[in-house]
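Render this sequence as a predicted structure.
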Amino acid sequence: MTDLPDGTAPTISAAASTSITQIRQRVTDWFAREQRDLPWRHPERTAWGVLVSEVMLQQTPVVRVLPVWQQWLDRWPEPAALAADSSGEAVRAWGRLGYPRRALRLHAAATKIASDHGGIVPQSIPELRALPGIGDYTAAAVATFAFGLRSTVVDTNIRRVEARLFQGDALPAPILTAAEMRLAEELLPEDPGEAVSWNAAVMELGALVCTARSPQCSICPVSTECAWIAAGKPAPSYQPKGQPWAGTDRQLRGAVMAVLRAAEHPVPGELLHAPAVRLDQRAQPPELTRLYALDSEPSRLERILEGLVADGLAVRTEAGLALPS
């Protein structure tokens, strides 16, 4: 695992430490009643389906992931199926999930699974961690939710719940610390099955109830044990920085990628940013209309195009710019 800043040593209040078993039970009972019906939680789920879901859910809401995840699994039900297709098709099928390099990483992971693991997603965390684009969190999550192994899973939702419930902080530290990992490990049940349930339940509690901006403390199953509530709900020690979109390079990259995904053939560079050759608006694809509406400086657009090529998300051909083959 990557070295983490140590941070402040975790402190579990005396009252909480005597009732951790009860807290676990309340949270997992709540989860059994209130969990969302998500396909990657179904009994018939596959390890590949879980891996795809974990990559797609990074920085992307469930509601946006659901249809794309289903389309991917319908088209590529196994890693070998994706590996046999082009990385460009993976990027095209990624749609508007954002951060499309994740599609390239999934394709690379599928290729390695097909070549080095007989097409079967490996179970061990070291082997999962060795797959392209798979970090500590994703490896632990796949080991837990796909294979039922006891592993410490720590995402943003889990960090927030545990910071409030056990440490009285409104938000966890801006960067994951070693102290947070020690706390999560201390809270993890010894029984693998119970550990899987705890990980899933705390994650769901953070997603649905103990949210960052509008926590619903009145319906929280462990509100009476919450150190943050007991402390009077103190304000966070910092204000999280949002990620702007309008006017950013990310918006422009997304607009160019939308044009490339929709195109059946390479797109000439001059068509992307030369006003003299722009099509009549009645005939041009809507993706081009949205790109032109950004009215980007030619030099900035060219820098964006070069960046997409450098990232492996696009290739230059004699005919123009295209998704990788």
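Summary. The mean pLDDT is 92. The longest strand covers residues 315-317.
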